[in-house]
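Handout, page 2. Input:
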Amino acid sequence: MLDLGWTELLLIGIVALIVVGPKDLPGMFQAVGKFVGKAKGMAREFSRAMNDAADHSGVNEIQKTFKAASNPMKSAMDEVKKTTENATRDLTTADVPPLSEERQAQADKIREKAGEMATARKTAEAEAEAKAAAEAQATETKTPETKTKDAPQSKASKAKTKSGKTTKAKAKSTKAAAAKVEDKA
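Output:
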């Protein structure tokens, strides 16, 4: 299409204003707008007719063939994808014979035992978390007077006595250091 910038359009507008005059300029712009609209409509209709003719003549099929030939990796991957989808569909729709009564009973026992073990593990984890939280809280609430005088204060406990607050990690490290000192004594 025409490559017109703002300066060219401004120049055309000034020339049109001088040549046509301010009185007839809106009518001229309206006529030019109608002409441009009709031209665009004709171009759109022509393009649509050419696409329809290409569809009827099989050009799209040839175009797909050329694209597949130019990118063999994609066409190979499409075939692999189609094959796996077919295999997955066949496996999910295949009839699985039911288990014998003995094997079904064994499978039920295994599922039940696995459920019991999972419940026991979750309970043990919850108890361990509760115990750790209680120990951390007990360590945090201790005052310097209740500590043994033999145990040297670590940096974490000194910081605790100054600020009054420590994290759980600092509390655990303080308790571990105190336990080591008590073991040595």
